Amino acid sequence: MARHNHLQRGLDGAAIGLSGLCLVHCLALPAMAALLPLAANLSHAEWLHPLFLAMAAPISVFALARSGNWKRPGMVALAVAGLSLMAAGAFVPMNDWAEAALTSLGGLALAGVHLLNARICSCAEQAELEPAA
After folding, report:
1. Is 86 left (phi over 0), alpha (psi -120 to 50) or beta?
2. Among 46, 48, 57, 113, which is 20 to 30 Å from 123 by CA?
3. In the predicted model, what is the mean pLDDT of residues 50-79?
């Protein structure tokens, strides 16, 4: 059981980390674009959003499926909303601000799902370790 929980924490941590990278890309890189030419190129790289989505979607689905929390409708709805917002930011033509807003909200929603998932898994692990009264 400990191996299962270690992998689960790693999956949730990876998904949260990807959400953080997405936020850095959407929020910090445009601000840095005025300072560094490389940041300006990365802030407008069209291939980054689909890449983040291609990494985030399978990790998120696998993490929720492995933990068993895909059976919780609220968590699934938040995950689907987050991935949908990220997909809209990646594939729907819009201005830079709208794209950054949608992608950031999607990343935050997905990070929230994985924080909840990690907390639920941690609480379940604690309950297994406590002796029965």
Report:
1. alpha
2. 57
3. 85
